[in-house]
Amino acid sequence: MGLLTFALAGAGAAGAIAAAPLVLTAVGFTSAGIAAGSIAAGMMSTAAVANGGAVAAGTTVAVLQAAGAAGLPVAASAVKSGCKTKLEDVT
């Protein structure tokens, strides 16, 4: 992997982490819960109907709600620690 590729991948990862809380909030996964009438509410309703009235742990809706409620600090930490590669390893 070349230095430019590494730099672009790092910039893309940082941009995704920065944008994730905004995107989650925009679709309805907020820190206060799922916003009524939002895309997230529709997803939750569909998941609940498919699972007999409850949203199962570990499903997409559950994971996105947890990320929206937490502001994504766990994912940000994971990406940050995963990007700690020395430049000597890249060139």
TrEMBL record:
Subcellular location: Membrane
Highest taxon, organism lineage: Eukaryota
Keywords: Membrane, Transmembrane, Transmembrane helix
Topology in the lipid bilayer: Multi-pass membrane protein
BP terms from Gene Ontology: intrinsic apoptotic signaling pathway; release of cytochrome c from mitochondria
Pfam families recorded: Ifi-6-16
GO terms under cellular component: mitochondrial membrane
Similarity comment: family membership: Belongs to the IFI6/IFI27 family.
Record's protein name: Interferon alpha-inducible protein 27-like protein 2A
Source species: Champsocephalus gunnari (Mackerel icefish)
